[in-house]
Amino acid sequence: MIKLENMDSILTSAGKPLENGTLVADDGVYFCIFSRNATKVFLELFDSPQSSEPYHTIELDSKINKTGDFWHVFVQGLKPGALYLYRADGPYRPERGNRFDNTEYLFDPRAKAFTQGSVFRYLMPGKRKNLARMPKCVVVDNDSYDWGDDKPLSIPLERSVIYEMHVKGFTASPTSKVKNPGTYRGVIEKIPYLQSLGISAVELLPIMEFDEYENSNENPRTGARLKNYWGYSTIGFFAPKCEYASDKTPGACVNEFKDMVKAFHNVGIEVILDVVFNHTAEGNERGVMLNFRGLDNQIFYHLVKDQKQYYMNFSGCGNAVNANHPVVQDFIINCLRYWVTEMHVDGFRFDLAGELTRDEKGIVSLDAPLTKRISEDSILRNTKIIAEPWDCDGCYLMGNFPGGRWCEWNDRYRDGIRKFIRGDEYTSTEAATRIAGSSDLFSPSKRGPIHSINFIDAHDGFTMADLVTYNYKHNDDNGEENRDGTDNNLSYNYGYEGAVVNPKIELKRGRKMRNFFVTLFVSQGVPMFVAGDEVCRTQNGNNNAYCQDNEISWFNWDNVKNNARMLEFVQKLIAIRNQHPIFQRRFFFGGASTSQFNNPPDITWFDPEGKMPDWKKLNRYLAFRLGGRATGLAKEDNDFFIAMNMDIHDMTITIPMPSEGRKWYRLIDTSIENRTNVLLAPQAETLNSQEHYVILANSILVLLGK
Given 351, 430, 477, 533, which residue is catalytic? Predict the structure, then answer.
């Protein structure tokens, strides 16, 4: 480990204020940390991850080592790999919002990496920290990495297909057969599979440093200790999770993460990070002191007015970050810039982003400065920014998230399509609005369909396979007596709760999954689906698997072979979407058509008789024609006719005319149970009848006009 040979001769100088914590120079390392109200700050140096005490303490002099609210120092002779922590002294007056304690060792909020080791089990509130078990911050030299000509890809939103995945869970299962399971390198080994899918981006569940052992629950059935598997409880906002690295050398996780990003970019796949700025891992007033609480508690958190010993809890996780305080805004912006400039990521999905719109009083503001700053920042300008536009305390901004160019997770799409595909009464109108891009939500803010992130399911909730297998959640293994997780699943088991050997039920479930996928990929907007949906991954009915770091959550690679038909179906659907700009509109439909004879408008809706639908009466059916010669497309395309019969009865439908000189060919019929249920354009089948088609119950038809 990095230790100065002669501790008595350690030389320091004043240093300088830095935005990102540490900076490696030729002859030493610059350190910098923020604290407005501390009276003293101590930099502690360690010689190994297991050190039970520092080998040297540097007390920073407020007259020499402080500029504004930044405490800084330069330590000569230190090199990359050096280990450190901080302590801060100041007033301990919780009722006034100050919780300084000079006996507490603190992580650098801007640390670039941590040493291996769990955190919370050795950092219990009210107990002295066990330094031998406490991770240390690692000095990292980003300039030593060779990126070559790599840079963020900036794939247009309209061409995006997002794949939500968990870095560890993607290859942790023994079925993955990779050399480094559950790691960044393990993901690299599986990139050819992702490339074969045709996706444009992976959206990674949190990889910023967190403690997987913070969960104290046990599985009541097995007695096994449960974990924080998802990672929505950040400790180090600048640090990739070290446990996901195969090389356990301090700081090696940084280069392994970069290797993964570069490998994705080499095959044209973007990397989007799921980031958690709405709360931290320090919890409520009974929580543990890790960094922000011990450095300037009243600045970083929303505290209860006149009772500042208590924390506001807009996140549902014990505290809420005071994100629109100018200091905290700067911290978040600098963090995002770091991941773009130094780690080359392509975008961010912001967990519970509604909390980021709350002003310093905790009131939701449509003029929130932070979300606008993120949108307009000169370095972040070309990154993808995706909001989960709500929080856990009543803020719901779906379609109205402030800041300009933000995309939003569209839960209205999720719920509307689930109901329609399930066959709920009179849901056709809602489904039509969602398939057309949700103009009701995004037009008022002058955004387009590309700002809608369309999804059927996400990490939080049932998998797609479980949506058609379970009526109820089955979260008993979570140790919360099945109270956790939503009860509003909008799912249906089609005759039996759970896995079956009944072929009729299996066939119906498979058809419903195909219906979900077809709808997702013919909808205007940006499609997103969850890793494993394409091979029918199940969580056995657990709709809140945040604590299940095991086969319940992991990708089972045996399913790639066992469910090869579904995989091929999804691959072909993505290929169809990628090949046709008609599904990639930047602007909403307007009924526009060309002046040529019999060239139909950009979109026309039909009832089963081929007439304009009576939207009040239309039930369990939806059909529309897309005109490939209409204006508003990037280039001329084929026509498409899509009919969706979610009734329990077959029906004979009337097919509208395609553009002049074109005929209809069948691409997809989800009622077909073999490999011909989806075809690419060169293999499309000519229809015997260009006027009528018998569409079976619970199925979708897609015709190509060429």
Answer: 351
